[in-house]
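From the shared-data thread, chain only:
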Amino acid sequence: MEHFVEFKDISKAYPGVQALTEVGFRVDGGEVCALLGENGAGKSTLLKILSGDIQPDHGSIIVNGETAHFSSPHDAIMASISVIYQERQMAPMLSVMENVYIGDLPGGKLGMVKRETLRAGTQALIDKFGLPLRPTDTVGKLSVAHQQMVEIMKAYRRNSAVLAFDEPTSSLTDSEVKILFDLIRQLRAEGKVILYVTHRMSEIFQISDKIAVLKDGRLIKTFESAQTDEMELITAMVGRDIGDTYSTIKRNEEIGEVVLEVENLVTDEVRDISFTLRKGEILGFAGLVGAGRTEVVRAIFGADAIKSGTIRLEGADVRFKSPKEAIDHGIALCPEDRKEQGLVLNRTISQNVSIPVLKRICDWLFLNRKRETRLADAAIARYSIRTPSSDKLVLELSGGNQQKVILGRWTSERMETKILILDEPTKGIDVGSKAEVYQMMCDLAKTGIAVIFISSELTEVLNLSDRIVVMHNGHITGIVDRGPEATEESVLALAMKD
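Structure, as tokens:
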């Protein structure tokens, strides 16, 4: 039987937000359909409805010609649907084979699990897909990419006809992305229905057959991948032709005196790190995955121990024993993993913005809620955070709006931020929100804040940085000034230099 899934007039509303409005399109077996749209467009909501996590207010899902109603994820699994989210749903202490068969362990006499059946079945799947795994490997010790492969094997063993991937490559290296794409192509060749959510334009044209573009909860159009291009898709996403994203950015041209000096910094992960940072400067950090960029800023921020070296802040020697000490001295960090390290997801926007300044907005021992709300409302207005109010839980915001909440926290009127460290600030956000973040960075630099900017997207680093620190294997291989010498070729050559 040829598989297909069809969304018919799907609508979903939350208090103050219409997440989806009459969305409808069909994906056939043997097709990869990319879901594209700005943060808040409704992509994640649609996947949650498909997986049974939430139910639509109106509309239906047709699976292989039959109307399906999923009241739980279990119902969706029973209907041969698997959704593989960014946050993997696994038991990290169990083995690969136990995760692959979780919920359906083969039993023998006296209720004992048939471990040889587990091992043989899992090994057959590993061999089929040519994966570098063993059935007995502990899942929690695997890389992100390998954990994702376990999720795919689990879905395949269930004989899922429909597989949906939510930002599957956001934490993968180029070589790991290739392995994932090979897996998806195998699934497509077997007639599976594939839905694929990503913000990376290059991936869309590598892996998809068709593209469904959402904006503000509505389906704008479906495109055949071979008959469209990047600019047409971006125009459909944002509702206008944004042209060259970087050409409209208004940069800071007045760089001030040195605010931070790092000399011969050594930690367990990096060595002999030396550079300076000036007021109003955007200092980019480039390098391949594992180069040590994040480890450098974590050491400066007091999150990782320093073995030797000197750090001077405004001419005074400092060595922070904790992030709190760094924050008290005016250094702020927006971490790469905003959900795990940067936000308290089950708290409101107000509570997240006020975290570092609670003592400053208290009356004696009591929190002044009006001051807290005022700080959050100012952040919402300054960064155009899309929310009905500051009381909305952060976990209910899109990725781009979550990033804006972190920026609002570190730039509130109660903060005295001198150095703002942005580690992969545009990771997992759409092209429209990226342009907003770029301008925010430049606007902050104009106020005299010194910005350290880490990005794995080389075009971002080249177009936004005043200088670029290039790293490879835990040490600096070069520092490049903005100008004609700062090219992709020159930076990549340094990034691969021993």
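The first helix runs from residue 43 to 51.
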